[in-house]
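Render this sequence as a predicted structure.
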Amino acid sequence: MAENIERPGAQEWVPQGAGVDALREAAPACRGCELWEPATQVVFSAGNPSAPVALVGEQPGDQEDLRGIPFVGPAGQLLQRAMEEAGLAREDVYVTNAVKHFRFAPRGKRRIHATPEAAHVTACKPWLVAELAAVAPRVVVCLGATAVRSLLGTQVKVMRDRGTPMVRETSTGTTTFLVTAHPSSVLRVPDDARDAAYAALVADLAVVADLAAGRAPEAVAPAPPAPAPAQEQLAAQEELPVGGAGS
């Protein structure tokens, strides 16, 4: 018999019209899906609540779950380095995730990352919508397929559409979106392709830096394409579970 899991959605716990601080204070009480129970804590957001750029990832990873801060694990460290190389200042960025609790499968003493289901993304979306309304960023960056599906739907694909600004009408007005790979995917490509995958991430973030500064993106030479096996692996990660690097 299939397990009856309650996922009423987060809307009951999201204070209407609240700022980021009030949203963060309210989030630990959320019971919008079952992920709150095995997780250590809710992992809400970090960064400037008035930033011109919002980076949206998938979900917290193991280290983020333990520390309560997004993007502090290996993928987050790589992202910070890429931001610096792209000229995207930390003070210009607000970081969050599409899902606020760590979904994992226990394996002995380890907790193995498990990709959130569509139902988890849907349940948690009221938090993300409220955050973006409060921050009102000029540019929203979707890091990986889960963030893309939450905010842009299934018609947008990471590897096909990455690096190209997309203007969309939202509940808070006109917003520019940009899609790129999740930094954890860069960590998982083969060693001989990692430099190219990292360069592509930096190139996408350089476009974001220009948009955040109110400049049209510079006409720069594209980053060197990753070798075929790496491109295939990155494309496959739009459909397959993401590994243990987390946000």
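Summary. The first helix runs from residue 20 to 26. The beta strands are 45-47, 53-57, 93-97, 104-107, 110-113, 139-143, 166-170, 173-180.
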